[in-house]
Every structure is written in structure tokens, then in C-alpha cells.
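User: Fold this one for me? It's NADP-dependent oxidoreductase.
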Amino acid sequence: MKAVYLEEYGSAQNLTFGDIAKPTITPNQVLIKVQGAGVNPVDWMVREGFLRASGQHEMPLIVGWDAAGQVVEKGNNVSNLKLGEQVYVYAPISEQGAYAEYLAVDSDLVASAPKSLDIVTAAAVPLAATTAWQALVEGCQLKAGQRVLIHNASGGVGSFAVQIAKALGAYVIGTASASNKAYLTALGVDQFIDYQTQRFEDEVDELDAVLVAVGGDGIAERSLEVVRKGGNVVSLLDDIESALPLQLAVNFQRWWVSPNARDLQRIAALIDDGVIKVNIDKVFPLSKAAQAQELSQSKRARGKIVLEVSL
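Assistant: Here's what I get for NADP-dependent oxidoreductase.
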């Protein structure tokens, strides 16, 4: 099958588009004919060696862990999915990925794709939306009437987080560049902060929660200062020393998302009900995966980047 894979860690130029063995499935797995693969920051982080020391991966490594497509084979123990079913999945990052014609994955991680989306667009959803859902619901413990600040609200995770927070009944404050103000207002942001000209610490305080969907600039530490005692700060990238949150009586977590089909089912329902819209920045062919990752790495994408796998 055709796939995009690594033979050694490094830059986007280390990605090879070529032929590789088609995966085989175990009794608990399904084989998905991939039609779309989402592009996420973790893809290029892994490419650069983010998990090298973990020993989880063997080369050649197919990258990308968001997929949407059709079930074409299923193991003898699989009863929750049907052959021909349109599905989507956030696959385990410890395994081979989805920039490929086929993906073998445990069936209990797979959910029916949102019916209101075309299947390529559905590939933009799983990892980013699951991250936003888990970080807000489990990490921030966000409830109706609470105030939440979302950093990098125009990014892939941030765009979903804004909409999920609104669906939960929260007052949403979002940071982004001025060029994204109208976009975020349309998504439902109640208060916009231009991070290039405003310090968020000067604009808000006594918040219930902060989701830090960006790294660097000490944003995780600085966010502790704008949360009430007992409030929650969840960071998706940067960790901090435990002393400062303890001193300020704020709950801090460096969040690690986990594949979860039940969360994908809830997200699909919100999409099909029109509560969550999926915003695509650009669709690339599978052969242009290097360019897609470079766009992701530039941090200039508004919404999601997807690879179309139509070979």
C-alpha cells in the first residue's frame, strides 16, 4: 500500500511517500480503508524524535493518528462495527499511524463517523476534538456558568474547545491574533484577547479554568495568576513545577489525551446536531504530507489540516 513513513527521525524532508506492507488485523481489530488523515502537532513532534527515548516505535514508522474511512475487514471478535461502515478514530500514538491507505486498529477505539460530514472532513475531528473534550470536561471540570480562558483559541484544539465550552454553558474568553477575531466571534467566543497587543493577565482574573493549548512564553505559569483558588489550569504542552500551583491553591495538570470511542460518539452527536462546526484550513493529498506538516509546524493554520487519501 501507499503510505507516508519515517526511516529515521528528523525534518519534514525525512518523510517518505512510498510503498509499505499493508497491515494485518488481530481478532479484536478492524482494517480501515483510510480516506482522510488528520494532521496534528504530535505528528511532527514524533517525526522530530519526541518519543524516541520511549522505545515505542519501530522503523519504518507510519505517522499520523487521526483517520476516517470505511471498515473493510474485521476480526472474529469484533461485534460493534459493520463491514462497509463509515468510521473515524484517534489511534494509539504508540502504534503505526494513519498516513496510509489502510489502518489496523482495535475496534473498541473506533466510532461511527458524524453523518453530517463528508468522510475526509471527519478525519479532522478525532484527536483534536477528543483532546478539547477531555481537557475541559475531565481536566478543567468545566460547568455551566463558569468562565474559561482558552489560549490559542483559533488553532485545531482551540477551535473545538471554544465550541465545546459553549455547549457546556460556559463564558468563553479566547486568545489569538487580531486577524482571527471575527473567526472566533463566529465560533462563540464571548471575550477576545489579542495576544500580540494585550497581556491576558491585564484583561481577566478570578477565572474558573484555563486551557493552555499552546506552548512557550511562560503562558502555563502566567495562567495560574488569573484563576481563582480551587480553579483549574490544564496545559497541553508545557509542564511546570508543582510548588507554584500549590502556593496559589490552583489545580494544575499537564494533560495527556487518551483514545476513547465513547468521547468520539458524544462529539459526533454534537456535530450532527449543529453544535460543533469543523473548520478546515487546508486539504493536501497524501503525497504532500511534508508540506502539510510544515504548515502545522508554522502555527499559522486556522482550524484543521487534513490529508486526502484517494489512491
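One thing worth pointing out: The radius of gyration is 19 Å.
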